[in-house]
Specification:
single chain, alpha+beta, 4-stranded antiparallel beta sheet
């Protein structure tokens, strides 16, 4: 069961898409994250092995009105502020800071050259500097440092050590049901006969989705094993696999994750995606929005053993990613985090959309900031009412729910 209005909101991207579709927009479109709430930002290790702050989770990415991302992110700050038991003035300040940061950053990007916009990013030092200013949140810097250290060590080698064992002299994924189940435990005799054909088709399609230099890198690895892996609550009902490949020797593993990509929740309210598969939609969207994405990000389309076509995007498992712990954040700390998220979202939108037109629409006053803050308050009230109706239905037995999962 979703235990709080904030958890309820995070799981409601489809509901909010329906709500946003009824609201007016400027008519200017960008590549959207599609689920831009404040926990879908985090620390990433770049291809240069530096740490950067950026958006994550692009399952819902789609071309659409830039306002939709701004409104979802703004509402998430208001709802998170309530979850943190902050006062109304602190919550409104955080939301207004978020939107002002988006507005002023977009104005700055409008004056920059295309390459400068493309290369703009927030590195870990800027993140530390910004949060260091919040004296009431000195423990926040410690948490950021912890997240940064986790990102540096949460990589393919860690995944290899955790999920792989030597079985009769061969490297294999551990059999740890239901979280991790090697493919041989899932196939009947007929499916086993097709197994090598499926793997060959996966490697062919995935290779073709990569840039030429990354194709050469992939070809330096050989396929070893594949297993089904249970992923997070937000992906319940979708398929996910992990693939083990080995390079130079036993100390050179590559662990990939295949995650099923389904239709974006935004697609019911917007023109169909320009890409032929949802896996490609996710990858293209992420490449457009992220300053430093996974160099081995690709896609794959499978006619599965159930006779249905399933679409996947492929990435490295645990390639230096870490979320930021927001528990116990003060009002000033929430505003500091909002400023960083506003800049990051503006930069992501500026890469694909008409940044000059968006900046001109937003103007230099705080009218837009205040309007979105009003929207966030109203939407948070609606979210709380919806959550209460949900909780009442569970309490009365009209809905079945399992707590603590």
């Amino acid at each position: 069961m979703l235990e709080s209005p904030f958890a309820f909101y995070r799981g409601g991207a489809a509901i909010m898409a329906a709500d946003l579709a009824t609201t007016p927009t400027s008519g200017i479109e960008v590549q959207l994250c599609g689920d831009a709430h404040l926990l879908n930002f985090g620390i990433f290790r770049t291809a240069e092995r530096m740490l950067a702050f950026d958006i994550n989770d692009f399952d819902e990415t789609h071309w659409g009105p830039w306002e939709w991302d701004v409104k979802r992110l703004a509402a998430s700050f208001e709802i998170a502020g309530r979850d943190l038991q902050l006062g109304a003035s602190s919550r409104r300040r955080a939301v207004a800071t978020l939107v002002a940061s988006y507005r002023t950053s977009m104005a700055s990007f409008a004056t920059m050259g295309n390459l400068d916009v493309w290369y703009a990013h927030i590195d870990i030092d800027r993140l530390r500097t910004r949060l260091r200013k919040e004296r009431t949140d000195r423990d926040r810097l410690t948490r950021i440092e912890t997240s940064a250290r986790r990102a540096m060590t949460h990589d393919h080698l860690t995944a290899f050590e955790k999920h792989v064992e030597v079985d009769d002299g061969e490297l294999r994924f551990v059999h740890r049901p239901p979280q991790l189940v090697p493919v041989e435990y899932l196939l009947d005799e007929e499916a086993r006969d097709r197994y090598q054909e499926v793997i060959g088709e996966f490697l062919r399609q995935y290779r073709e989705s990569l840039r030429p230099d990354r194709r050469l890198l992939l070809e330096s690895y050989r396929f070893v094993h594949i297993a089904r892996k249970i992923v997070g609550v937000g992906s319940v009902g979708t398929r996910a696999w992990v693939v083990l490949m080995m390079g130079r020797d036993a100390d050179d593993p590559l662990v990939l994750q295949l995650k099923e990509a389904q239709q974006s929740v935004l697609e019911s309210y917007l023109p169909h995606t320009r890409w032929p598969s949802n896996g490609e939609r996710v990858v293209r969207g992420q490449r457009l929005m992220q300053a430093a994405g996974d160099p081995l990000l690709g896609w794959y389309r499978l006619l599965a053993f159930d006779g249905r076509v399933h679409e996947f995007y492929v990435r490295q498992l645990w390639d230096g990613k870490a979320s930021i712990d927001l528990a116990g954040l003060s009002g000033r700390g929430l505003s500091a985090y909002a400023e960083l998220c506003g800049w990051t979202l503006a930069r992501a939108h500026a890469r694909s959309g008409d940044r000059v037109a968006i900046a001109g629409y937003l103007g230099s006053s705080d009218r837009f900031d205040e309007a979105i803050a009003d929207f966030a308050t109203t939407y948070a009230d609606l979210n709380e009412a919806d959550y209460q109706a949900f909780a009442d239905a569970v309490e009365s037995g009209r809905l079945d729910a399992v707590r603590g999962v």
